[in-house]
Amino acid sequence: MSSLVLLLIGLGILFLVFNTKDEIHRITAMISGTILLIWSLALAPLSFQLLIEIVSVLAAFSVCMRCLGCGFNRD
């Protein structure tokens, strides 16, 4: 349960990063939000960790395939 609370707080802080105009507050919020997200994922159950890992690998794979042009010539 604590991992869910930390996850929600981390996501809330990262949402506030995009609404902040001051650079110092933005950097501080980004660092603290990232730390809370990492901490919440470390405390999460294994099944949730595996789900997040699979989703992130699939997202990275789709971005890489788009960058490579899926084997087609870009010219």
Radius of gyration: 17 Å
What gross morphology would you assign?
flat
Task: Briefly note the structural class of the backbone.
Answer: mainly alpha
Number of strands: 0
Binned strand content = under 5%
**What's the SSE pattern?**
HHH
Quaternary state reads: single chain
Are there runs of 5+ residues with pLDDT below 50, and where?
none
Share of helix among residues? over 70%
The largest sheet, given as strand count, sense and whether it forms a barrel, is:
none
What is the CA-CA span between the terminal residues?
52 Å
Number of helical runs? 3
* Overall pLDDT metric: 81
Offer a quick outline of the entry.
80% of the residues lie in helices and 0% in strands. The protein has helices at 2-17, 23-43, 46-68. Helix 1 runs antiparallel to helix 2.
Q: What report would you give on this structure?
A:
The chain is an all-alpha fold and 75 residues long. Helix content is 80%, strand content 0%. The chain has helices spanning 2-17, 23-43, 46-68.
Features:
75 residues, mainly alpha, 3 helices, 80% helix, 0% strand
Task: Note the topology.
Layout lengths: L1 H16 L5 H21 L2 H23 L7
